[in-house]
Structures
1.
Amino acid sequence: MTFAIFQWLERTRLSIAINESLWAFAVIEAVHLLALAVIGGAVLVVDLRLLGFAFQRQKVNDLARVAQPWFLWSLFGMLLTGFILFLSLAASKYYVHTYFWVKMYFLAAAMIFSFTVRQWLIMGDETRANSGLAKLVALVSLFLWAGVGLAGKAI
């Protein structure tokens, strides 16, 4: 994306409306943080099971099926509110902000990893979900999603 696109985005009607509103930014930020907490919980529940620290009596794919709607809806909410916050906080400032790009790279990697490698593992057979590979997948997943949160905090 070029700098001109970032400048254009910060001048959209939505961006202006949020910036002129007394409460819009706070409400959107609260929903964004709530979505981040929910996605963190959905990821954490399954990854702790993969690591063998929690829910050991439950099958991984059963636990993942329960957590998946929470993961998907919170991811959607987090992406939507994140984009709106991006618009309202002078998008062109993000263009030169290192941690913004770090967060975007972590987010892209976390989403790709979650929908490919992690999904393949947690929806597979129970033997694979209890292997050393499962523990590695859980650690990588936790690292990537923590990177999203920490880079966001650094912004």
Note: The chain has eight helices and no strands.
2.
Amino acid sequence: MKRVLFIDVRNAIRSQIAEAWFNYLADGYAQARSCGTMPALQISRRAIQVMAELDVDISRKYPKAVTQSMLEQADIIVLMGKGIYPRAFAPTLTWDFEDATGKP
């Protein structure tokens, strides 16, 4: 099974949504995880609400710090934002999404 790792700074909005949406659409054919370089204490309530509108429950998820093991197990890594530079062991994409923290 192919593994995708979504990484952003806080792992509270963008990467959590990306992980949940990917896993929903992949329907077991591939798997995504998410993590952050400086993880928040909890997932954004807005992220939980947005995914709930799509019938995807992320309310039990929590922000996680990126680990060496996560990087080594990934088949592809997606960096979500500027200033994120973990040492990657897999092909890496950069998606320059603006951080939604504190925005309406």
Note: The longest helix spans residues 14-26.
